[in-house]
Design a protein that fits this description.
15 helices; hpI Integrase, Chain A; 319 residues; 2 domains; mainly alpha; globular
Length: 319
């Protein structure tokens, strides 16, 4: 099942809202926006519409609930405050970014509004949290949980090693095709955000795991599919969401909490920066175009390096 179900997102919304969201999705698709991005953008706008119609205490919110062109700055600010109270500041930041794109589209592309209600709405401040990395011992436990000769075990080891070895996104690994993999050069072609492709090398242990998986895949019922990853049974591919569920279950079986692909991405950046790796090279490997990303992902490594230096220098210990 695809991630983006537009009917489900818009069910119960007034016709005007639904019509605009469907047109916006067409515009996003024509701009080749990834499905995940489209889903997050459209979800933010749909949630604003539902908030104005069901939860807002403002009697003037009815106009905005019926037509996005009637949404005001006050409506958006109240929605953001409600998101912070009922979800989190980080979630409110994501909604803010989605609504920025929606009302920009209404103003510039559709020319349906004369003033953008987001113009003076401040982005919520989200607390900075250090994402816990997955230590080698934890990854080893997860690999041990999928040890075996069956198809699923061989596939899962290849998946885990590829995530840990490359730091790729969940969807980048999950949407791979067989033709993206080149075992001769021990490299793989990732299709990143914004239609940005990159080729990344992987190590010999990952290569062996992938080679074993390909042999098992050749005997599988779904071997004729172009998708690299296949479901345990039948002829269906294993989707990114299926991989997400599988990793969580393997983590639970291994006694390692909160296992997901993004933690290996943080771990990759952490270990790279901790080893003194070049930031520009890290950006190329992980498919980033903004230097804000390595700073964010490398924050845990910076904190760990600082503590190591503190212990080595021993300030205050010589008194």
């Amino acid at each position: 099942m695809p991630l983006l179900d537009l009917h489900k997102l818009t069910v119960g919304l007034p016709r005007t809202w639904s019509g605009f969201l469907r047109d916006w999705d067409r515009s996003l698709r024509s701009g080749n926006y990834p499905e995940t991005t489209r889903y997050n953008y459209l979800l933010a706008a749909a949630q604003l519409a539902r908030y104005l119609g069901e939860y807002s205490p403002d009697p003037d919110a009815d106009d905005g609930a019926g037509d996005p062109c009637a949404v005001t700055r006050a409506h958006v600010e109240a929605f953001q405050a409600w998101m912070i109270e009922t979800r989190s500041a980080s979630t409110a930041v994501n909604k803010h970014k989605g609504l920025q794109q929606f009302f920009k589209w209404l103003l510039v592309d559709e020319q349906a509004i004369d003033r953008n209600p987001m113009q003076r709405v401040r982005q919520p401040k989200a607390p900075t949290r250090l994402v816990p990395v997955l230590r080698e011992a934890d990854t080893a436990k997860v690999l041990e949980a999928c040890r075996g000769k069956g198809f699923a075990s061989v596939r899962d080891e290849a998946l885990i090693r590829l995530y840990a070895n490359t730091g790729a996104r969940l969807s980048e690994v999950g949407n791979l095709l067989v033709t993206d993999l080149d075992l001769n050069t021990e490299s793989i072609q990732f299709h990143g955000k914004g239609a940005k492709d990159r080729r990344v090398r992987f190590g010999p242990k990952t290569a062996r795991a992938l080679s074993r998986y390909l042999r098992a895949r050749d005997k599988h019922k779904g071997a004729g599919l172009p998708n690299l990853w296949l479901a345990d049974r039948g002829t269906a591919p294993l989707t990114p969401n299926g991989i997400k569920i599988r990793l969580k279950r393997l983590g639970q079986a291994a006694g390692v909490p909160d296992v997901h692909a993004h933690r290996w991405r943080h771990t990759f950046a952490h270990e790279w920066k901790r080893a003194g790796g070049d930031t520009g090279d890290l950006m190329l490997l992980l498919g980033w175009s903004s230097e804000d990303m390595p700073r964010h992902y490398g924050a845990s490594a910076a904190a760990e390096r600082a503590m190591e230096i503190q212990q080595r220098i021993g300030i205050g210990e010589r008194i």
